[in-house]
Structures are given as structure tokens and as C-alpha cells.
Amino acid sequence: MKDTFxxxxxxxxxxxxxxxxxxxxxxxxxPHDARWWYVFGSATLMAFSLQIVTGILLAFTYVPSGGxxxxxxxxxxxxxxxxxxxxxxxxxxxxxxxxxxxxxxxQVFAFGSYKYPREMNWLSGVLLFAFTITxxxxxxxxxxxxxxxxxxxxxxxxAGRVPIIGPWLGRFIVGGDVESAxxxxxxxxxxxxxxxxxxxxxxxxxxxxxxxxxISEPPTxxxxxxxxxxxxxxxxxxxxxxxxxxxxxxxxxxVFGVGLLLAIMFCAWYFGAPAMDNPPxxxxxxxxxxxxxxxxxYFAVLxxxxxxxxxxxxxxxxxxxxxxxxxxxFISNSGERHLKKRPWAVGAIVLGAILVGVLWHAxxxxxxxxxxxxxxxxxxxxxSTDAHVIHGATLFYDRGCINCHAIQGHGGVKGPDLTxxxxxxxxxxxxxxxxxxxxxxxxxxxxxxxxxxxxxxxFLQTRKHAPLPYxxxx
Amino acid sequence: MTAKTxxxxxxxxxxxxxxxxxxxxxxxxxxxxxxxxLAMSVPLVGYVLAPxxxxxxxxxxxxxxxxxxxxxxxxxxxxDNAAPLPWDGQTGKTGAWLRRNSETEFIAFALTCTHLxxxxxxxxxxxxxxxxxxxxxxxxxxxxxxxxxxxxxPRFETRINNGVVEVKTQPVAIQRS
Lengths: 474, 177
Fold this sequence. Notes:
The complex is a heterodimer of chains A (474) and B (177).
Chain A: H1 2-16, H2 18-26, E1 29-30, H3 40-59, H4 69-78, H5 83-110, H6 119-141, H7 146-159, H8 166-174, H9 181-213, E2 224-225, H10 230-241, E3 243-244, H11 245-271, H12 296-304, H13 307-331, E4 335-336, H14 343-365, H15 379-382, H16 387-398, H17 401-404, E5 406-407, E6 410-411, H18 421-424, H19 427-436, H20 450-461
Antiparallel strand pairs in A: 1-3, 2-4, 5-6
Helix pairs in contact in A: 3-5, 3-11, 4-5, 5-6, 5-11, 6-9, 6-13, 7-8, 12-14, 16-20, 19-20
Chain B: H1 16-53, E1 60-65, E2 74-80, E3 93-100, E4 106-110, E5 121-123, E6 128-130, E7 137-139, E8 144-146, E9 155-156, E10 158-161, E11 164-168
Antiparallel strand pairs in B: 1-11, 2-3, 3-4, 4-9, 5-6, 6-7, 7-8, 10-11
């Protein structure tokens, strides 16, 4: 049996030269100590391969039509055998691809692997990063639910801030005067043909560069990169201590890659397909467009930026981030590679992690948005038998105060907590704020009738600290 | 073995005639390729960019009888886009908030917040439009009440035609910086 296979392979190989072509690539020498830190690039590729397979299978059923995309996804999720699992795999595969890519990028930066002669490896990687994020965002749009159609509006509004050509860019994203079926088909073509095609081409380039320049050895403090001698030194190192990639290093990629696949499968099975928002019916106005997790931190940037400078940030922020990543190998392509000798690099990683972490946390709290799901204040919170106070508590809900202000944990967090407002402000101060509003608060002078203002005031004045045991005032 | 080497004549020292012939052939290839690419890309780019420059002729769309709306109330409406396609489905419609201000005056507000285009919600008892994204708030007349929006809510033109309220379609409002 084994002999038969060998004979078939020899027959094919003699006529195609496949072994001669692939053999040297597979067995190229890699540093013997390039171990578990070096698995994240291949893990990203593994996730991408899964995306291609699951994406093609989803396209077997998905209908990229403005009128039917949502229904076809509902069918995939709820009716077609294994459909929900496939959607879940595609979602967690995308998450895994982005996560692995980010870890890979940070590792390459931390190891100083982008220095000579691997500058092009880094630059092609930065482009792959940008294409992959775009691939993720266009994938989110394929759900063609409320979230998707309004996310396109938000993207168009951001593009509209670009000087001079902004309005045209915005119109291009929307796809004309208004969103339509053509908006979906355009993003569909980008998501399934254009972006994967570009990414495949760049992966080809990226791998070619890995073969040409070799895998960088783990950094050692004091061992510097000198472009004049680096290639010769690396060559010598490989001749002395290098090991063939296949199978000495490849097995780790296989172990980690399969582990990643298992993790994706587990997440898909355990958490299921990503939730669908309401259908893209324009008469439903309950949409709350939000990006998927990997862009949530940027969502916070858009919310927290002061309006005076937000146009500048929206246009030049992403540009600046791209430029910064692009400039990394031009800022320093020689010298020390070990983090112990690169304080600026340590600072950049720590600062980047803190910045994204804080923004992410802010985005999860979302304390700039009113709450829309609050219920009227419960009796045990109102704690009063006074008709005016009770009416005031009703108004607190009816007039939308509760959307932004909380009392004992009931209500929004956009505005100040009013649990103890009666202890902090006197009657005239409270009236002044309600009537005039403020930067983030509407003026309620024209909304509340005069008796309503009185009752709301009466209610708010009862919001006091519990009287201390030794105090006499009530 | 694969054929890796060039044909023998290319390994001979090239004569000046051969060199100029090669330079000529290179130039011909590039020029022809350039012409072909240009000729091909003009209509292709035109096809891709057409939606940017295509302006739909605005249409008046009925949204209900005058009597269906109460004075002082604001309700959600939706109407067909100016040029819907059969496969647009739900996407072929636009949503809006319609306010009946008086016996004869109707105002139709676009859903799009002027900050970043999220759909605003009408909070009837608070008489405010609130945006779920970044906290923009508008009064019942669409003027900015609070938060980041730079401008009032965009409006659609409205009219009463034979007892029917009609709204005029328009492109989505993309704010300039």
C-alpha cells in the first residue's frame, strides 16, 4: 500500500517537479530556538484558511440581496442543519484571525524582528492588518440587519468629514442617494472577492519574504543588527545551529494551529452564531449601531472626542495610526533587538495597551449614551406617600430624566447620579439646572409644565442621605 | 529537470542592434499594455463610481391621511425611496419622524443624527429625540438640545395633497466637516 502511494507520487513528481519546488522551501533552515513565540503568524493563516472554507460554504446559501439577505441568514441560523454552527465558526474564526494577527504583530515588534533585512515583512504585514480589519467590518455588514445598515451610515458620515472629497466618499459608501440593495452587493463583492483576493496576494508576498529573509532568531541583549553584516551573520548562524523548518519547527505550528481550531470550534458550539439585530426595516427605529469587539475601542474614541476637534480626529486619526505603524522600520532598522535595550519600544507597547484597554473599558460602559430600557422607579426606591412626590417620580421616568440619571442604581449613567441630589443642591439650584439644561442636558423649561416642575422638584428633594443616627434635622 | 536557462542566443554578448531591438520591444509592450489598461479602465471606473454621481429625481410619497395624525404628536413613518429596485425589499424604504404641528403644518424629520448618522428615537413623553450612539438630544422641533450634534435634525419637505400627507424623498444628509 505504502509502495503504491510512493509510486504514484514519484510519477506525479517526475512530471510536475512539485517536490523539487516545495522541498527546499519546507526544509529551509530556521533558528533552533525559535519556539512558541513564533506560532502566531501561522495561526493567523490557519484562521484565514478556515474563513475561506466557512465563507464559501455560507455563500452556498446566503443571498446577497437587499430584500432577502436577512431572511437567508435567518434560514441558515434556524433551519438549515449545521447552519448556525457554520455562522458561528465564521464569526469566531474572524475573531481568532484578528486576535492572532494582533499578537503576531506585537511579538514581531517586541522582538525587533522588523529590523533589517525584514522591513518589507513588516510593511506587508501592516497592509495585511488593514485589509483584515476591513474584511472584518465588511463581514459585519453581511448580516444586513439594523446594525449593518446604520453602521454603513455611520461610516459614510465619518468619510464625509474628509476635506473636499468627503461628501463624494460618503455617497460612494452609501451607494448613491440612499442605501439600497446595491449597497449590500457592493460590500458583498468587497468582502468575498476583492479583500480576500488582495489578502491572498499579500500573504504570498509575506511568505516569500519570510523565506528570503529567514525567521529572525530570538533577540539577545547586546547583540545588535548591523545592515552591513546582518545577512552574513544570519547565514552563518543558520549553517551552524539552524534546523529545518519541516518538521523541526512546523510541528509547533501544527500543535498551536489545531489548538486554535479546537478553541474556535468550542466557542462556536458553546456561544453559537452571533446575534442578529432587527431586520433592516427603516420604520424600526430602535437600532443602536455598534462595531464588533475589535473596533469597540475606536467607537469610544468617536464618542469621547470633543466636537470641536472630532472631524480632525476622524479623518487624520486612522491616517496617523497607519502612518505610525508604517514608519516603525524607518525609525529604527538597526541596533538592539532585545526589549531590555529598547526602552522606547517598551513604552510604546505599554502606552498602546493602556490606551486601547481604557478605551475598550469606556466603550463597554458606554456612559455617553442614554439608556432606553429603563423601567419606572420601583416603589421601594420612591418611598413616599406624598402625591406630589409620587407624581414627581413618575415624571422622572416619563420626561426622560431616567434615561441619563440614575437613582439608587435605576437609570442611565450619562448624567450625574441623583440618588442624593436633595442633600447636594437646594430647590432653586435644582430648578435652575432642570430649566436651563447644560452641555449634555436639554433645557426642560419648554417641556415641563409649571406644576410638573414643582412635583419633580418635590421628588428630587426627597433624595437625601439617610439621616445620621446622632443628627436632629429630621 | 525544469528548463531554467534562457535560450542560447540570450547568453551571447548582445550586439548593439539586438539591444536596441530589445529596448524597442520593451517599449512597445509597455505602451500597448498602457493603452489597453486605460481603454479598459475608463468604463470600469465609471461603472464603479456611477452611483456617486447618479441623482435620483425626488418623488412625493404618501404617508397617510391628514386625519390619521394628531396635532402635537410625532410618529414613525416610512415611505418608498425615489427609485427603489424590485430586489431592494425593506431596504427600498426610508424611515422618518412625522410631527403634526398644527391643522395644516407637518414636519418630517430624518432619522439620521447630524453627529454621526445614528437613528434618533422619539421619546414621546419627554418630547425629545435621543440618539443611542453618543448622546445627542434634539427638541421636538429638531433643534439641538444637548450633546455633540452640530446641526438640527435634517427635514424632508412635506405637503398635503387631497387630504393625504406627502413627503418628498431626498438623499441622506452627509454632514461636511
